[in-house]
Amino acid sequence: MKRVVLTAGVILAASFAVAQQNTNNSQTTNGAPSGTAVVDKQQDTVVKPVPKKVKVDKSTVEAAQKALADRGYQTGPVDGIVGPQTRAATSKFQSDQGLKQTGSLNADTLAKLNVGGPETLSAAPGDVGRGGKAFGHNIKEGHPVEAGKALGEGTVHGAKKVGKGTESLAKEGAQKVGGGLSSVGNKIDNTVTGDKNKDQSNDQNDANQKPQ
User: Fold this and answer.
1) For residues 46 and 141, is the Cβ–Cβ distance under 8 A?
2) 95, 128, 150, 166: which has the fewest Cβ within 10 Å?
3) Which of 49, 51, 50, 52 is nearest to 147 (CA)?
């Protein structure tokens, strides 16, 4: 009886060892053990919104070139083309203003130059939209905290563009209004001065024609 039990124990131990070895050697290339099948694969990712670039057209580049030239930065001809000289001048201006040196006319640089207000404002909704996309993706991936951060970051990007664009528009408008008023003032001054000189001339003629 004891011999039978001992034999059975040896057989069970051997069977367990073989099964364990087979299990260790039965991993497939996709990581699924023998006897199972992959039914789904998930990639766990967290994303955040990337700020939308401000679309800069020829007129905006010309305005920026003029603003840089007025501040003493050599951009070359004011032609609306971002060439090597304009990029170098922009990079130098960015360095002097404590901005990241990219050589490109981005939102921060345009705001410092007080140009490109409409273009900066038009990019703001895109930032909010990108925040919403990142929010939805992170929620789907099971990261509600990161989703909230992404939504907030997109909103902040958009709000900053609104602020910078509005400030640029205000300053551009003030400069135009100031220049216009100065021109009107000069015209009024010239008219008044001319009338005054005319009156003095008439008074002198009257004095000369008065009988002695």
Assistant:
1) yes
2) 95
3) 49
